[in-house]
C-alpha cells in the first residue's frame, strides 16, 4: 500500500514569491492534515479536512496561506507571498475515522531567502 | 490548554541498553496517544497508538504505556540498536464528550544509540 505522497521534497524561494505544496493521502483515508514543523519542534496543525470540508483551519494564517482539497482526495497548500519566517518543513498526514491513527508523508522542506 | 512535554530532549546510550522515553501531558481528557519516530530529513513514522481505555501497547522491541490519571506515557525500547537512533515524538489527541480534537505534539527526544 502506497503511503502519503508529497511534492516537492525541497523548495527554495525568495521572499515575497508564491509557493505551493501537493499531497496525495493514503487511498481511502477521508481525513487529511497539513502541519508545519519548525526546527527542534513538534509539528503544529495548520488545517484539517474531512473529505472536502475544512473542519479546522483555526491555525492557518489566512492572510497568506490557502488550502484546497478537491474531490476529497489530493490537497494543495499555498503560501503567497512567502516570508522569511515561513521556512520550515510542511508535513501532510492522513487518517481513517476511528481510531484516527495518522500516517505522515516525507514532508516538504521550504527555505525562504 | 493541553500541553505535551518530553524529557529528556536528548539521550545517548550504548548499544544493547534498555531505555525509557517519557511523555507527560497536562489534561487527562484524551482520546488517544500516539508515539512517532522521525529520522533526519524525513516525515513521521507511527510506532504505537494507545487508546484512552488501554494501559499499554507492544510492537516488537517497543512497549508504550499510558497512565491517564497521572498524565504520563512511557516508550520502552528493549535491547537498543544503532538503527533506533532518531527523534521520538509523543502526541495526544484530546477527547471531549465523544468528539476528537487534533494531535498535540511534544518537542521530541533525540535518541542516539552508539555501537
| Helix-strand category of chain A | mainly beta
The level of helicity of chain B is under 10%
Order of helical and strand elements of chain A = EEEEEEEEEEE
> What percent of residues of chain A adopt helix (DSSP H or I)?
under 10%
Can you walk through the features of this model?
The complex is a heterodimer of chains A (113) and B (115). With 113 residues, chain A is mainly beta. Chain A has no helices and eleven strands. In chain A, the strands form two sheets. In chain A, strands 2, 4, 5, 6, 9, 10 and 11 form a seven-stranded mixed sheet that branches. Chain A has a four-stranded antiparallel sheet with strand order 1-3-8-7, with no helix packed on it. Chain A is globular. Chain B is mostly beta strands. Helix content of chain B is 0%, strand content 61%. Chain B has strands at residues 4-7, 10-14, 19-25, 30-38, 44-51, 56-59, 62-67, 72-77, 86-96, 99-100, 104-105, 109-114. In chain B, strands 2, 4, 5, 9, 10, 11 and 12 form a seven-stranded mixed sheet that branches. In chain B, strands 1-3-8-7-6 form a five-stranded antiparallel sheet, with no helix packed on it. Chain B starts with a strand and ends with a strand. Chain A binds chain B through residues 4, 6, 33, 40-45, 48, 56, 91, 93, 99-107, 109, and chain B through 4, 31-32, 34, 36, 41-46, 49, 51, 89, 91, 93, 100, 102-103, 105-108.
Amino acid at each position: 500500500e502506497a503511503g502519503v505522497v508529497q511534492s516537492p521534497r525541497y523548495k527554495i524561494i525568495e521572499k515575497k514569491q508564491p509557493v505551493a505544496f501537493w499531497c496525495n493521502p493514503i487511498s481511502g483515508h477521508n481525513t487529511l492534515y497539513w502541519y508545519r514543523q519548525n526546527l527542534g519542534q513538534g509539528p503544529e496543525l495548520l488545517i484539517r479536512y474531512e473529505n472536502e470540508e475544512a473542519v479546522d483551519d483555526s491555525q492557518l494564517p489566512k492572510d497568506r496561506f490557502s488550502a484546497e482539497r478537491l474531490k476529497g482526495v489530493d490537497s494543495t497548500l499555498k503560501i503567497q507571498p512567502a516570508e522569511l519566517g515561513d521556512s520550515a518543513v510542511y508535513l501532510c498526514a492522513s487518517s481513517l475515522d476511528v481510531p484516527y491513527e495518522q500516517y505522515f508523508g516525507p514532508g516538504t522542506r521550504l527555505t525562504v531567502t | 490548554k493541553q500541553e505535551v512535554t518530553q524529557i529528556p530532549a536528548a539521550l545517548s546510550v550504548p548499544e544493547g541498553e534498555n531505555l525509557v522515553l517519557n511523555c507527560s501531558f497536562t489534561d487527562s481528557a484524551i482520546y488517544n496517544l500516539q508515539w512517532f519516530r522521525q529520522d533526519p530529513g524525513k516525515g513521521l513514522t507511527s510506532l504505537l497508538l494507545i487508546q484512552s481505555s488501554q494501559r499499554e501497547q507492544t510492537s516488537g522491541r517497543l512497549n508504550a504505556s499510558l497512565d491517564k490519571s497521572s498524565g504520563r506515557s512511557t516508550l520502552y525500547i528493549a535491547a537498543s540498536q544503532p538503527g533506533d537512533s532518531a527523534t521520538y515524538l509523543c502526541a495526544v489527541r484530546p477527547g471531549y464528550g465523544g468528539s476528537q480534537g487534533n494531535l498535540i505534539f511534544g518537542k521530541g527526544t533525540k535518541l542516539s544509540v552508539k555501537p
